[in-house]
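To illustrate the input format used throughout this study, we show a single complete record. The first block contains the structure-token representation of the backbone; no residue identities are included at this stage. The design step must infer an amino acid for every position from geometry alone.
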């Protein structure tokens, strides 16, 4: 029986790296190829919506050729087999966690497979390319659909819920994130203040490394299944 009841997991791009989805800040990452001010801010979308749509269309299309890896599967296994609660908070906008079987999860930075209408405010599932000349299927207004992605300068989703979970956490796991983007980068301090044991599983020490009580470094597809196995046996 695990000594922990409430587990909160935060994941970042590193968990999907071995599936072939680019991270953001590694040497060949997304932000080495694109200026985030051109594709990931509300101002960029106002200035040049086509460029922003092209960027997310390409990333959405890429999801059909990638698959969940051992780290996604181990996280889903933890949710199924742990006797207490497991909440997964992901910064990732891909759909690999849900395809691996995770269900109790919050996409705090949005989802590539959804769009939102700025006219009626509704989000809807979306699997094809998005463009400025498409009408919202719900309210029929033309030109108001945008990626359901949290851009820099916008408030991430589910923040109240996430802080409630962090306040009740016994164990906080941070997996595959550089710990550079707030508010997610501040979750470890919240969980620690609430008395949680804090563990970092990443390829290398993150920016928030000093906040973690336990640190395990290596590729997520290797270290996460081993950690989950040990935790479930504890
Ligand atoms: P980053 O690209 O900043 O960090 C990815 C982390 O994963 C790095 O610390 C890598 O060392 C680590 N990593 C790489 N490969 C790994 C592997 N195989 N196994 C384990 N770890 C590995 O990505 P995030 O921290 O997710 O936001 O970035 C946070 C946010 O910044 C993203 O959600 C995105 C981005 O700008 C928005 O677009 C709003």
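Output of the design step:
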């Amino acid at each position: 029986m695990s000594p922990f009841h409430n587990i909160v997991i935060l994941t970042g791009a590193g968990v999907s790296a071995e599936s072939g989805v680019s991270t953001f800040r590694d040497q060949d990452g997304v932000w080495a190829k694109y200026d985030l001010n051109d594709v990931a801010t509300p101002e960029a979308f106002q200035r040049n919506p086509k460029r922003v749509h092209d960027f997310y269309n390409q990333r959405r299309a890429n999801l059909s050729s990638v698959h969940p890896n051992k780290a996604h599967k181990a996280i889903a296994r933890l949710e199924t087999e742990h006797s207490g609660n497991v909440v997964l908070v992901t910064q990732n906008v891909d759909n690999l966690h849900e395809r691996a079987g995770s269900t109790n999860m919050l996409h705090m930075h949005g989802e590539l497979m959804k769009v939102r209408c700025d006219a009626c405010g509704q989000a809807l599932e979306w699997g094809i390319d998005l463009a400025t000349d498409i009408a919202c299927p719900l309210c029929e207004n033309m030109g108001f659909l945008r990626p359901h992605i949290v851009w820099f300068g916008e408030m991430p989703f589910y923040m109240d819920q996430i802080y409630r979970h962090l306040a009740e956490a016994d164990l906080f796991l941070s997996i595959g994130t550089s710990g550079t983007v707030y508010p997610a980068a501040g979750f470890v301090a919240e969980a620690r203040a609430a008395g949680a044991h804090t563990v970092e599983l990443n390829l290398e020490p993150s920016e928030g490394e000093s906040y973690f009580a336990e640190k395990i470094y290596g590729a997520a597809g290797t270290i996460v299944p081993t950690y989950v196995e040990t935790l479930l046996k504890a």
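Structural context for interpreting the output: The chain has two domains: 1-21+67-109+156-234, 22-65+110-149. The domain at 22-65+110-149 is CATH 3.30.1600.10 (SIR2/SIRT2 'Small Domain').
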